[in-house]
Structure to design on (454 residues):
């Protein structure tokens, strides 16, 4: 999927052509790089609006050679050559040129995309015979029988071992060879298993070696059990070091992972901020959490729930007029589609002439160009909290606190599906039945419809 639509590119180009300004200024206005604006303008000047749309092309060998030859003859850059031949990705010209210089025409020939339909099976060792049965000697037939018996014994032993253990394949093969070497020649077993002699003896040495971390693992288990799972690898490392044993925290972390030990407290919370992605909007709301009418001021955010080692994310929109949740969306991953679908549901409820302010934090979802374009299209003013200041969005944080204290922490959930169904019921209860003293003892929906009733 293209990051920018054809209509968006066309709008950027026309803005540049209509205003006497630089590429960088236009790019800064749309939160894109100035070089991208320059490329779009050049394509529009050469090919018109069609040059800004998608193009799916498969370039054959003759076309690639003609492009490279023209570029060399005219001493053009990759960008200039791509513009002449209407190639949307100038970087592929560099790939073609390097392939041609390194491997000639064969390297430049297009390869079939994807995985081949018929995958060739790996060659299996065959019994040592090259003649017809009638022409072979008695010794050759006995050798073939011995080989087949060895192969049968190896496959049976390997199958039973692989189903009973979870070690790696090489270790399993070496163990099978070790168990059968008293009955069959080791050279034939190694050839059948596809193992080098050095690999086989290395695996034997590794099996005989004692676990050098056995004592350390015992200490880790003891400390973890003594503190009832409250300690993570950092505190366990510090405790072991106080005992006089010098150990690296990465070693403790790796051993705890292999033992299946993990701290049971302070689970990492969801953080939506991922750096300076896109453009941040100013803090227009300024902690003014009172609204005089519906759909005047909205707030939104994303919160995380953890059930049975699975996560569920909730993205609601709250109206500051009455604290009503006017739209929400849930997802098992914090993807942009969750926020986008939530916003579309909320925009449907706007009446003609209503232009609310939508406040959020500086999460990456709210800095996406697609999100900001959707707000601008519907004349919604975007407002953002200051970086690292949750109090700027206190109204939304207050709703999350109420939701978790009244619903999530009071119940026990067996699955994410059960939590998801319960969230829908609670939000309906919160909007229609749960009264607020701040709203004169009415629920959010009752408070919003009260003027209509009276």
């Amino acid at each position: 999927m293209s990051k920018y639509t054809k209509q968006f590119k066309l709008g950027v180009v026309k803005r540049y052509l209509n205003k006497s300004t630089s590429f960088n200024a236009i790019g800064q206005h749309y939160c894109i790089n100035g070089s991208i604006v320059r490329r779009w303008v050049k394509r529009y000047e050469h090919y018109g609006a069609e040059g800004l749309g998608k193009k799916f092309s498969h370039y054959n060998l003759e076309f690639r050679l003609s492009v490279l030859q023209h570029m060399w003859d005219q001493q053009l850059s990759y960008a200039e050559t791509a513009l002449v031949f209407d190639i949307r990705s100038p970087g592929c010209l560099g790939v073609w040129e390097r392939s041609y210089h390194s491997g000639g025409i064969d390297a430049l020939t297009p390869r079939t995309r994807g995985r081949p339909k018929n995958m060739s099976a790996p060659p299996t060792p065959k019994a040592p015979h090259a003649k017809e049965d009638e022409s072979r000697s008695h010794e050759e037939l006995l050798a073939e029988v011995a080989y087949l018996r060895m192969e049968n014994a190896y496959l049976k032993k390997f199958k039973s071992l692989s189903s009973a253990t979870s070690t790696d394949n090489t270790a399993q093969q070496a163990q099978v060879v070790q168990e059968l070497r008293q009955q069959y020649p080791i050279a034939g077993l190694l050839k059948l298993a596809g193992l080098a002699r050095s690999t086989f003896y290395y695996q034997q040495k590794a099996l005989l070696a004692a676990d050098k971390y056995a004592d350390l693992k015992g200490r880790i288990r003891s400390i973890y059990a003594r503190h009832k799972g409250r300690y993570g690898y950092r505190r366990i490392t510090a405790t072991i070091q106080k005992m006089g044993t010098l150990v690296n925290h990465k070693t403790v972390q790796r051993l705890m992972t292999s033992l299946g030990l993990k701290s049971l407290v302070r689970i990492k919370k969801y953080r939506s901020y991922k750096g300076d992605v896109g453009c941040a909007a100013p803090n227009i709301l300024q902690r003014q959490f009172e609204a005089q009418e519906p759909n005047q001021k909205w707030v939104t955010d994303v919160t995380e729930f953890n059930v049975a080692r699975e996560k569920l994310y909730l993205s609601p929109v709250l109206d500051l007029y009455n604290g009503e949740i006017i739209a929400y969306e849930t997802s098992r991953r914090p993807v942009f589609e969750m926020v986008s679908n939530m916003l579309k549901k909320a925009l449907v409820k706007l009446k003609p002439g209503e232009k609310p302010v939508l406040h959020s934090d500086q999460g990456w979802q709210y800095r996406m160009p697609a999100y900001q374009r959707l707000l601008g299209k519907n004349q919604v003013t975007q407002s953002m909290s200051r970086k690292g200041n949750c109090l700027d969005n206190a109204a939304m944080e207050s709703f999350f606190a109420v939701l978790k204290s009244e619903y999530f922490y009071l119940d026990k959930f067996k699955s994410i599906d059960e939590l998801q169904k319960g969230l829908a019921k609670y939000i309906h209860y919160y909007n229609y039945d749960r009264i607020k003293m701040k709203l004169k003892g009415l629920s959010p929906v009752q408070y919003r419809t009260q003027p209509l009733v009276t």
In short: The chain has 18 helices and six strands.
